[in-house]
Amino acid sequence: MRFITSQDITVTEHDPFMKHGNGFESMLSESGFNSLLSVGEGFNVEFKQVLPNERKYLKTLVAFSNCLGGRMIIGVSDSGVFIGLDYDEAESVCEKVSSDIASFTDPQIMFDTNIMSLGDDGRYAVIVDVFEGRAKPYYLVEGSRRDCYIRQGRNTYPACEAIIRDLVLEGRNCSYDSFNYVGGTGPISPDEGDVERLMEPLRRSGMVDPSISDLINMGLITSIDGKMCITRGFDILTRNRDRHKLDCALFKGTDKIDVLDSKISEGGLLEQIDFCMRF
Question: Which strand ranges, in their side-by-side order, compose the sheet holding 45-48?
Fold first, then answer.
C-alpha cells in the first residue's frame, strides 16, 4: 500500500492512465482522477462508494484479472461523484482488500493499492489496481465453490464453460488455431495444393520464395514423430473443414437497423476475406 497526495505528482499528460508495464499508471494525478470520474465506469473501471462487507466486490477484481486488468476506486459513487473516506476507513479498506484477495482468489490475483488524498478536506479514495493475470483462469473461491468471472462492457458476469476453456488455453499461452488438426484417421498432412494456396498471398505480400519452412515458422504446420501435419489455423485458411463462416451485411444508414443485403461467405478464410471485400 502507498499513501499519496494530489500534490505529490506533476501532471505530464492528459491521459489519466500514465501507463507502466501492466497498462496502468503507477499513480494518479488529481486531474487524471477527475478525468476518470467524468468518463465513468467501463470495461476496466469500477466505482464503489464504500467497500461492501460481503465479498461480492471480489467478483469484479477476479474478472479484471481474467480480462485485461482494471481499476476499482473506492470512495466514489456509481454516478462518479467523489464522496471519500476518512483515513482510518481508507487504511481498513486496503487491509481488507489484501486479506480477501489472499484468502479468496485462486490463483492469487496480482494487485496494488493506493490511498489518494484529494484537496484539503481530509477525504481519501482507495485505488485498487488489478493487473491482467498470466495464470488464467482466476477464480473466486469460497469453501468448495470456485466461480470464474469476466467483464463484458461495464458489468461483471460468470464465465461460461467455453470461455473458461479459452482462458485455460490463454493461461497456457496456447490458442485454438495452434492445435493440430485431427481428422477421422488422425493428424492430417499438408496437401500440396493447399500449401500453394497459402504461398500465393505470401508472394503478393512481398515475401521472396516462401517455403514450407515459413509455414512452420508461422505455426501453420507442425511435426509429430517426424511427420508434418497441419494445424487448425492452416485448415481455417484453406479448406475450412469445420465450416467457419463470415456474415456480411449492408445496412441503410449508420444505425445498423435496416438491412439492404446480406450474404454468408464459405470456403477457406482467404476466400472468405476476398468475398467480403467484393461484397
Answer: 2-5, 111-117, 124-130, 70-74, 45-48
Per residue in 29-42, pLDDT tens? 788 888 889 999 99
Between the CA of residue 254 and those of 46, 115, 257, what are the distances in Å?
A: 30, 44, 8
Cα 246 from chain centroid (whole Å):
23
Cβ atoms of 85 and 126 within 8 Å: the answer is yes
d(CA 185, CA 210): 30
Give the pTM.
Answer: 0.65
| C-alpha to C-alpha distance for 213 and 22, rounded to whole angstroms | 34
For residue 172, report the phi and psi dihedrals to the nearest 5 degrees: -95, 5
Dist. CA 75–CA 125, nearest whole Å: 5
Q: Which residues contact 150 (CB under 8 A, 6 or more apart)?
A: 63, 66, 67, 156, 157, 159, 163
Span 1-48, pLDDT tens digits: 444 443 333 322 333 333 344 445 556 778 888 888 999 999 999 999
Which triple of cell numbers denotes residue 118? 484529494
Pairing relationship of beta strands 145-152 and 155-158 according to DSSP bridges: antiparallel
